[in-house]
Each structure stands twice: as C-alpha cells, then as structure tokens.
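Please complete every field before forwarding. Incomplete forms are returned to the sender.

SECTION A: IDENTIFIERS
Entry label: holo-56
Bound molecule: zinc ion
Molecule representation: SMILES string

SECTION B: INPUTS
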Amino acid sequence: MSMCPKCGSPDTVGFTLNPGANLLRLTHCRGCENRWWVDGRTTVALHDVLATISAA
Ligand SMILES: [Zn+2]
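SECTION C: PREDICTED COMPLEX
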C-alpha cells in the first residue's frame, strides 16, 4: 500500500491493472476519496492512462 499524496493517509486501497506492457495501479484513498494511478514507480494522470488503455 502507498500513502495518499493528498492527505498523507496510509488507508488506501490499490487495484492493479495490466492493459498491456505497462503495469498500472489505481489507488484509492479512503480518507479523502482521492484517486491516482501509478505506472511502475511513476504517478500518472488519468488521461494518460486512458490513452494507454485505448492503444492496447
Ligand atoms: Zn487522501
């Protein structure tokens, strides 16, 4: 699990997706409802992830 970059809460839930060669992880903070994606070690914006999924 990772800490929320918005509120710093460790109470997060992760969902791993693998639409292609890239391992994507959607993380949801139960503290502040923030959501973000992690591609490997990099946090990515949602529109970049959607572009990756449509290209797969
Ligand atoms: Zn949060």
